[in-house]
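Hi support team,

I submitted a single chain yesterday and got back a structure, but I'm not sure I'm reading the C-alpha cell output correctly. Could someone confirm the output below corresponds to the sequence I sent? I've pasted both exactly as they appear in my results page.

Thanks,
R.
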Amino acid sequence: MSRRITWRVILTMVFFNVFIFGAVVISDWAFSLIEGQNRAQHMMEGVRGKLATTLKTVEISAENNIAEVEANLTSPEKVYDALEHELLLNRHYLGCRVAFEPNFFHSQGHWFEPYVRFDDSTHVERIQLGSAQHDYFKLEWYKKGLELEKGKGHISDPYLDNDGGKSILCTYASPIYDGKGRKVGVYGIDLNLSWLEKTISYEEEKVKMMESVENDPNDSIEENAFFIQVLDSKGRKIAGSETFDDNSLKVILKQDSIAFESVKIKGTTYYVSSRRLGHTGWTLLVAQHKSFVFLNGYARSIVVLFFMIVGAIVTFFLTSRGINRSMKPLRFLSESAKEVAQGNFDTPLPTFKHQDEIAQLRDSFDTMQQSLKNYMEELKASTTAKASMESELNVAHNIQRSMLPKTHPPFPDRNDIDIYGIQKAAKAVGGDLYDFFVRDEKLFFCIGDVSGKGVPASLVMAVTRTLFRNVATHTAEPNHIVDAMNESICEGNDNDMFVTIFVGVLDLHSGRLSYCNAGHDAPFYQNKQLPCNSNIPIGVMQEWNFTEQVIKMAPGTTIFLYTDGLTEAENAQLEQFGIQRVANLVTLEKSPQKLIEQLVDAVRQFVGNTEQNDDITMLAIKYTNNEPITDL
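Hi R., thanks for writing in. Yes, this is the structure output for that exact sequence:
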C-alpha cells in the first residue's frame, strides 16, 4: 500500500511538473520573442540615432556652407574658397562639390562642377569635374537635389565615384539658390561609409558580448546568429556582414517596416525587424537567428527541468520514507486483523501513541472484534436452531410425501385404469395435494391447491387430504364430498385460507365420470379442457351449494389434472409457461407417466435456471376398460 501511495504521489507530481514545465516553456518562448523584439528595436534605435546624429551634423554643416556658397556666386574662385573652407573644418568628409546648372558661369561652359578634396593629409586639391564624360546632370544625387526645396537635404544611395572621391561613397545633396531665388545648382558633401560599418560592427559586438555574459562568458555567439544591415533603395547592401537572397529581400522590402517577423534567409529561419531611414531611401535591418532568439528560453527551460528532476527524485525518497513510516502501524494492525480473520477473536490489537485516523481504525477493529465474538455466539445458537428447524421441516416433508400416493402402478392387479401423479413443492413443504383410491369399483380422486405456501399451506393440505378420504368413504357423489369438506374447512378458518379442488368419481364398469370443480383449473380431456361449473374454492363461504357434472369416459381416454404452478411457471424473461403449451403437449396416445414426464421436461427447459416460485402438481388417469357397461 505504501508503494502504491508513493507511486500515486509521484505520478501526480510528474503530471503537474509536466504541466508546469510546459507552461514554463511556453512562457519562455513568449518572453524570448518579446525579448528578441525589444533587442531588435533597441539596436535599430541605436544605429538610427547615430545615423541621424551624423546626418544632422552633415545637414547643419551643409546649410552653413551653402549659405557661404550662395553669398559667393560672383566668381568660380570664391565658390572654390567656400568649399575648401568647409572641407578644412570637416576633415572626415571625402570632398565637397557644387554642380551648377548648364552655362551658369559662361566662362566655364556647359558643365561646371567645382570639387575639393584632400590629396594628402594637409593639402586640398581643387578639381573641375563637370564634362561630357562626367555628366553629373544624369547622376541620381543631382536629380534628387534639384527636386528638393530650399533647406532640405537627401542622402544618395552608395555609388562608385572614379572622378571625385575615387571610392564607394554616398552624397548629401541640397539645392542652391541665387540672389533672385532661382535654383541654380546642387550642393554636395561626399561621405565615406566606413563610419556606418563601424557603427553596425559596434552594435553587433555589443549584443554578442551581452549575450555571452548572460549565458556563458566562455561561449562565443556564432557570427551569423545576429547581424545588422543597411540596404539602399534598390535592396543592395550598404553596410553589414550578411547578404540576403532575392526571395527574402522581396519579403522585407515590400513593407516600410517590420516589427518582428519570421523570414527564411538562405533556407534558415531568422526573426527580422526593419525600418526605413528618414532623408534616405535606405532600410535598416536587424536579423536574429531562431536559436539566438530562444537561447535564453532554452537555458531557462533546461535549468527548470534540471531542478524539477532533482526535486522529483528528492521528493520520491522523502515521500517514500515518510509514507513507509506512516504505514508501519497499519502493517501491525493488518497482522492482528489476519489473526482475527482466522477465528482468533481474542488476539490483542496494537496500541498507538497518536490519536489519528489509524488509531481510530484500531478502535473500530476493536469494536468489530467484540461484535464478531458476540455474533459468532449468536450465529452458533441460530445455526443450531436452524438445523433443528431444517430437521423438523425435513420430517414434515417426509410426512407430507407419505400422505400422497407414491406407488406406481398403484393398482397392479387391475387392467381398467392407469394412474400417475407427481408433486414438486416450491419449498420444503407445499400446499398442493392429489389423492385417489378405489372403493366399490369406483375410483375416487382429487387434486387441490391451498392458498399460500410453506408450513401453513402444508397443514391445510394435510387436513384437506384427510377430509377427502374420510368423506369419500361415506358418499360417492362428488358435490356432497366437496360440500362436507367446505363446511369443515370454513369452521375456525381464522387465517382466511382456502383451497381450490377438483373431485371426481369414476365408475370403473360403466366409464361414468361424475365430478365437482371448486375454483380449480379445468382438467384436460381429449385434448380439450373439461367443461366446469363456476364454483368457488372451499373455505370461502360455508353456505355455498356446489354442483355436480357428469360425462362418459370412452375406453382409452385420459383425463389430465394440474395445479396453476404448471401454467404460471416463469422463465428469466418473466414469461409464463401458459395453458397453450400444456394443450400442445397433452395427447391421448401417451401413457399417464410419459405424459407427465414430458410436461416436466418441457417446464424444466422453459424456465432454465429460474427458481421455482410455486408448487407444481400433476395427475393423469387413463381409462382402459375395454368392456364398459353402456347404461349410466
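A quick pointer for reading it: The chain is about 45% helix and 20% strand. Let us know if anything else looks off.

Best,
Support desk
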